[in-house]
Amino acid sequence: MLTKFKKTSLALAATMVTGLALAGTVYAQQKTMAIGTGGTGGVYFPLGGAIANVLSKALPNTQATAEVTGGSVDNLKLIASGQSEMGFSMADAALDAFNGQDKFKVKVPLQTLLVVYPNRMHVVTVDGTGIEKMSDLKGKRVSTGSPGSATEVMAFRVLEAAGLDKDKDMKRERLGVAESVNAIKDRKIDAFMWVGGVPTAAVTDLAATPGTKMKLIDHSDLAEKMNAKYGKLYSPSNISKTIYPGMDKDNANTEVWNIIVTGDKMSNDDAYNIVKTLVEKKADIVAVHKEAESFSLNNQVQERSPVPFHPGALKYFKEKGIGG
Question: What is the rounded distance in angstroms from the CA atom of residue 304 to the CA atom of residue 235?
């Protein structure tokens, strides 16, 4: 016969086993979701952090994390290898991946979840370098963005449209935006190229540096030439002189849209819930960076994404009366 003590011990053991089994079930249902972003000085990273936070709170049993990466090209390669579930990309880099060209040896089966915001190409210099226009970059020390970034992809196209040879006409560095800002402050480079949302924190830092006069070089006239070769991806754009401290005039530049993409493994339900959450919880993301204002339904047009929308995203758009 079992003593009272033994009965109690067995009951406790049974409760613990049941509890562990239930915990195991909950653990098994927990989804992890890695989001490829960019460097810490850009806009992808803080936006990605805000998105991860919103998704983790809104979607049951989901833990989303924002990963620091080299940028668009890295993000697309991480999706291709299954290391990330989703990531930010500029439209031009995504099209290269989708077609398996340039930096991509094989086609990446991408699907767009959301068109997010336009990226503006910043061609940045400071007083004392003698750079006033694109042709003045000849013979200078210029950073064209970090390896694995879409900044590098677009920078090469801007330089080509300006009639400059990226290898012969300049001493080229491959630095991210934060590293570029440090290098130009130390006068190790004369200019850098960065394509990102506005304001970009690292560029604001440079513009606000005492004793430094930052200048952005106009190049909006190059969009047409770039489109003639690479397809209708780029548009003339503008950075208002109110965006960065000390600007004397608006900057006429080029822009390309950013998209959030996934591979071909995400279910329709997951895609639907992610897109619905990002659109409907937009205010929480805007609180981190104002570029999230563009996470709107009227931006969800295929012309802004060279990659097809995910069927789950299209389902949500259709419910909201948007054609996709």
Answer: 11
| Helix or strand run (H / E) with residue 115 | strand 111-126
pTM > 0.90? no
226 near 158, Cβ under 8 Å? yes
Per residue in 185-206, pLDDT (tens digit) is 999 999 999 999 999 999 999 9
* Residue 105, amino acid: K
Which of 32, 236, 39, 288 is closest to 120 using CA atoms?
236
Report how far apart, in Å, the C-alpha atoms of 237 and of each of 94, 181, 255 are: 21, 23, 6
pLDDT tens string 245-261: 999 999 999 999 999 99
Cα diameter, the chain: 97
CB 48 within 8 A of CB 66: yes
Written as six digits, the tokens of 25 are: 């079930």
Question: Of all helices (H) and strands (E), which one includes residue 261?
Answer: strand 251-262
Q: What single string gives the DSSP state of each residue in 213-242?
A: -EEE---GGGHHHHHHHH-S--EEEEE-TT
